[in-house]
Amino acid sequence: MSEILRLDKVSRNFSGLKALSDVTLGIKKGEVLGLIGPNGAGKTTLVNTICGVTPADSGRVIFAGNDITGIKPWQAARLGLARTFQIVQPFAEFTALDNVAAAALFSQPGESVRSAREEARAHLAFVGLEAQAAQPAATLTLAMRKRLELAKALAMKPKLLFLDEVNAGLNSAEVERATKLIHQLAADGITIVMIEHLMKVVLNVCTRIAVLHNGGLIADGAPREVIDNPAVVEAYLGQQYARRNAGRG
Amino acid sequence: MKRTDLALLLLIAAIAALPLFGGAYALRLGTIACMYAILALSWNVVGGWAGYPSFATAAFFGFGAYMAGVLLGKGVPLALALVATLVASLVLAGLFGAVLLRLRGHYFAIASLSLVEALRELVNNATDLTGGGMGLNIPLAAGSGILADATFFFYAMWGLLLLAALTMIAVSASKLGFGLACIRQNETAADMVGLNSTLYKSIAFGLSACFVSAAGGLYAAWVHYIDPSDVFDILYSVKPIVMALMGGLGSALGVVCGALLYLALEEVVWRNYIQIHSGVLGVLIVMLLLFLPHGLISLRWRMFWRTTAHV
User: Are residues A103 and A146 in the same domain?
Assistant: First the structure.
């Protein structure tokens, strides 16, 4: 399997705060990488740095062989880097259909408003929102808006998909449904990086886990190895989780 | 084409019949009505669709007036001078937009306001070209006779309004219009789906300036004399915003209706309350915005029937 994304000693500061320090990470094609870590560890900043929202201060980001370090967000989107937001970002007045159509229209060359809407319908059906197609995004429930984010990301025909806490704030039935969708996407061969706090979901879906703590990478490897790593238990999972896990395992 | 677009074209067609009903006064009002409608339609592109509250309308109105005025003074025919003005302001505003539209909200509003002042001072100081504070005399461009002159400028302004309206209708249904709506609703998300928002905003700013400048040029040719405090009057920036808010932000039909309503209010109030006309006009506008916050376009017939509440 070839590498689709390579981070080489990526750092990012917010004035005095070192949000990312020398993160080196490779992501292979077809992987589902779980990005975990305590709040403020730099998980979202890492995604923002790759997508060009907060460009890296030092280090290099290489996507599919090209250096994309100082790229603008819209350029990243056109290259095939799609993401969902932790705090959902719909076009509130647009219908669900037009939300997804916007993603298809502006990320793909040669789309017209009409063809984008046609494609959008298929993506809405995939995430189970076809009944809400004509509803303004502002009237959707949180779970639906999360799925709308996913449909938007998919409409961009991503090569690499970042899912930033798609399950936060959902109830267990909704989580199950979202997890199923992610499984399906992984089966379709999309490379996925997911930021997630629900360990059940992470262990269920991810083929590999990377752990961030205070802006640095403290562990990276197969799920089982990572959750047994004492540094990870200390920084994030907690002794209680480790004991419970050991008891079960 | 949507129903509201059709209604807009019908409305504009109805304005064209105005000369049949009145003399020089009606023509003068009609010309101003068309001019206001152009300003409101133009402001709507950047203020209504892209959601950036621009105060730069006066800057481009003045720029157009002076560019066309100077060209006319050098013997360039009116049509050519207007086309040159339109193209020049499209390019110039596009460049300004690329810089100014990096600011958001209030910051952008202030920056766009400063554009008016900057251009006014430029014109004031370029005495050789513009006559500075002395103003600029512009040679008569149209035929002889007061009524023939008035009719000519009415139809010229009307033609420009039609052109502006057709452009706006085309833009609103296009990828550009779709993109501007995305930018207004959520610029972060717009960037994230691959929309080059800087480019789109610049085009929007250019579009919002070019017809204003052409209208300014036509205005200069019509009144034969311009000076900086007249054509760079900040009221040219404020009025289109009020018109758009009164008519219905984001709707081409709405803002044109708003422009007509505003002109009607302005005339009626000015005639009847000459001493306190700005005060009365202000109160009326505040009342309208309070009781009809989404503008004329949000009026529905059923609002006029008093529906009985549940007892």
Answer: yes
pLDDT 10s digits, B96-117: 999 999 898 889 999 999 999 9
Substitution target from B174, B193, B198 for chain A, most A beta carbons within 10 A: B193
Question: Which of A128, A157, A186 is at the close of a domain?
Answer: A157
Q: Is the pLDDT of residue B70 over 90?
A: yes
Least confident stretch, B61-75, B126-140, B247-261: B126-140
> Quick check: pTM over 0.90?
no
| Contact residues on chain B for A77, CB-CB shorter than 8 A | 191-194
In a domain, A129, yes or no: yes
The yes-or-no verdict on residue B149 having pLDDT over 90 is: no
| Residue B180 contacts A where some CB pair is shorter than 8 Å | no
Q: Which of A77, A101, A113 sits opposite B192 (nearest CB)?
A: A77
> Would you state the pLDDT for residue B22?
73
Q: Which two three-digit tokens encode residue B255?
A: 């803002």
Asked whether the CA dihedral A24, A215, A33, A103 is positive or negative, the reply is negative
Q: Tell me, yes or no, whether A153 and A167 share the same domain.
A: no
Predicted confidence at residue B271, as pLDDT, reads: 82
Q: Which two tokens stand for residue B118?
A: 């900057």
- CA neighbor of B43 nearest in space, from B256, B293, B306, B187: B256
| Closest CB from A73, A105, A155 relative to B175 | A105
Q: How far is A178 from chain B (nearest CA, A)?
A: 21
CA distance linking residue A99 with residue B82, whole number of Å: 40
